[in-house]
Amino acid sequence: MVRDANGRGLTYAPPSVHAPLGTDDAGRDIWTQLVFGARISLTVGFLAGFIAMFVGSLFGILAGYFGGRVDNLLMRTTDILLVIPDLALMLVLVATLRQMDLHISPLTVLVVVIGLLYWTSTARLIRSQVLTIKERQFVARARAIGAGHVHIIRKHILPQIMPLIVANTVLVLSTAILVESGLAFLGLGDPTQPSWGTMLNFAFDRSAVTNGAWWFYLPPGLAIVWVTLGCILLGNVLEEMLNPRLTTHHLEGEKNMVAIQKQVKS
Amino acid sequence: MTSPPLLSVRHLTTEFHLVDKRIVRALDDVSFDVMPGQTVGLVGESGCGKTTVLMSIMRLLPSNGRITAGNVHFQGKDLLTLSEREMRDRRWKDMAIVFQGAMNALNPVMKVGDQIREAILLHKLMDSDAAEKRVEELLELVGIPYLRRDQYPHQYSGGMRQRAMIAMALGCSPALLFADEPTTALDVMIQAQVLDLLKDIQKRLGLTIVLVTHDLGVVAEICDSVVVMYGGKVAESGSADSVYNQPQHPYTQRLLAAFPDLNKPSDALAFISGTPPRLTDLPMGCRFHPRCDLKIAPCNEVTPPMIETSHAHYAACHFCQGKEAVFS
After folding, report:
1. Is the predicted ipTM greater than 0.95, yes or no?
2. pLDDT attached to residue A120
3. What's chain B's Rg over C-alpha atoms?
4. How far apart are CA B214 and CA A27, in angstroms?
5. Cα distance from A129 to chain B (closest Cα, Å)?
6. Cβ within 8 Å, pair B91-A146
7. Is residue A8 part of a domain?
8. Which of A196, A259, B81, B142 allows an S-S link to A220, with CB 3.0 to 4.6 Å?
9. Per-residue pLDDT, A80
10. Does A24 reside within a domain?
11. Which residues of B touch A144 (CB under 8 A)?
12. CB A171 within 8 A of CB A232
């Protein structure tokens, strides 16, 4: 807390030794808010991401493996969800669920709504992969040895799409964190448990920009960018590690090859 | 032949529904017997329905395939009347299949030993320790060192993969083994190895084998009887001896003539002109008549019945003189 001569907290105090990121319009420390906000942003993002991943993988596998009517039902559901603008639908859902007095915390509502709306692209991705795998001959062989559906999915299909699921989970996590921030910025977060998005919302509401208090709105914004970017880079690396077809050693420049040859000689 | 056949296929008819709503009859009225302990060769050109016969018998047709008529008696039971559950229990335990191109039939991300064990454990024939012992036995039987059980399929050579597939097929000691072109995509040396192995295993285990192949030489070498298929129908069937020495159907005759004789090298290879009929566009009457030299009046109108030309030797041709139409 930065205080003035009278012992009152200073509002919009710029960063200093006592408050590394300055204070907000109510004299609260921004650094503290940023640290505690990470907790909310990441928890909501991760939980929602995992729900989305689980639902998406399940729907994708079921639709791809069984085909026919199951496929039609699940994929048309996916299509319907895909064509409705996410943000508008989420706003309506979150707002309505809040009104309904269900005695669940606002954050839980956020987790469930994001989780249950963001599985569509995953489901399509997994389905297309399952479609190609189930036509491979070892699946026919598994049927021939008398294996049932559960066994085939667990032992022969899941291990093949696991790399895809893992790499995609990280990407969905980043989307979920971003969406959570977006919703919180629009005022749908929990004001008693501020996340990075809620901080941005406060900064916007209380004219941090016109007051020139960049230390109020830049830190949460950069934090969101940083985490999302980190997730995406991690996803790319994971994909490259888990999918040998994406390795590019053989395309690397001649310089590298010479170096390898020298190593071999010495 | 006093003992009842192990597998008896009668009037088997299988149809595929195409995307454009057309229906293709891939098998039409296919009938043949497989005696216990015998090796039966199923030969014919590509697309004549050899693999479809196997898949129909095992009821593993793709989802657009339907068996519309006929029955398949195996050990006295009609397989086509069993429920899916009962059928699943019987697969591999009673009849196993070595797929065409074993490299694709092995799961690339599973250890070979585990894949062999999978079938045994799936049918709960023994506990996991005993199954492991069995894997060891099987690998020894097909000549793969047990050390390599923990390797993945890509670490095996083509011949080894094929042998691993055979080991897998023998896992549950089936009475009947289907081998669907087990030697295609292998070079000649390995082909000979795999065939020797099959022959050897048959002698040792008293197995009944149905061997699907293009290669008449292979059939002559290891089969007791032959079923020649053409355009989804059986053209001729009988013991290997009589089919080779007295082929009745013109198709079989031309097929055998097309096989070059190493002792009398001639300049030109004999061949059958034309191509096999498209199943969507079958000729009337005998399916072979557009390519047949002998065709007479009824050939392009009437489908020739199956006739027993000599003991246990059947042919479907208007030229065949025989006792009477059979399998009716």
Report:
1. no
2. 92
3. 21
4. 87
5. 16
6. yes
7. no
8. A196
9. 92
10. no
11. 58, 60, 91-92, 96-97, 99
12. yes
Local confidence band at B275 (pLDDT 50, 70, 90 cut-offs): confident
Query: Do residue B88 and residue A148 have CB atoms under 8 angstroms apart?
Result: yes
Higher pLDDT, A70 or A253: A70
Please indicate, yes or no, if residue A115 is contained in any of the structural domains: yes
Q: Determine the residue among A69, A129, A139, A141 to mutate to test chain B binding: the one whose Cβ has the most chain B Cβ atoms within 10 Å.
A: A141
Is A130 part of a structural domain of the chain?
Answer: yes
The CATH number of the domain holding residue A162 is: 1.10.3720.10
pLDDT at residue B228, as a whole number? 93
Higher-confidence residue of B247 and A245: namely: B247
Is the predicted pLDDT of residue A249 greater than 70, yes or no?
no
Contact present, B100 and B51 (Cβ < 8 Å): yes
Nearest to A146 among B88, B99, B101 (CB): B88
* Structural domain containing residue A218: 31-265
Q: How many CB pairs under 8 A join A and B?
A: 59
pLDDT of res. A36: 92
Q: Is A253 on the interface with B (CB under 8 A)?
A: no
CA distance B173 to chain A (A): 12
DSSP A8: P
Provide the CB-side half-sphere exposure for B178 (13 A, CA). Answer: 25
Burial level of A157, CB count in 10 A (0-12/13-18/19+)?
A: buried
> Could you give the number of structural domains in chain A?
1
A38-57 per-position pLDDT tens digit:
999 999 999 999 999 999 99
How big is the CA angle at A110 (ends A107 and A112), to the nearest 5 degrees?
A: 110
- Distance between CA atoms of B52 and B62, rounded to whole angstroms? 10
How, if at all, do strands B39-43 and B208-213 pair? parallel
Checking if the pLDDT of B300 tops 90, the result is: no
| Closest residue by Cα to residue B78 from B66, B93, B96, B90 | B90
Q: Which residues of B touch A138 (CB under 8 A)?
A: 104-108
Q: Which residues in B have their CB inside 8 Å of a CB on A?
A: 58, 60, 63, 88-93, 96-97, 99, 101, 104-110, 118-119, 122-123, 168
Q: What is the reported pLDDT for A253?
A: 59
B77-106 pLDDT, tens digit per residue, is: 899 998 888 888 888 888 899 887 776 788
CA distance A85 to chain B (A): 34
Residue pLDDT, tens place only, B118-160: 888 888 778 889 999 999 999 998 889 999 999 999 899 888 8
Residue of A nearest to B56 (CA): A144
Interface test with A, best of B55, B107, B168 (most A CBs within 10 A): B107
Res. B326: pLDDT tops 80: no
Helix (H), strand (E) counts: chain B: 10, 12
Q: pTM of the prediction?
A: 0.77
The predicted structure's pLDDT at residue B205: 86
Q: Are strands B225-230 and B39-43 parallel, antiparallel or unpaired?
A: parallel
Over its C-alpha atoms, chain A yields an Rg (Å, rounded) of 24
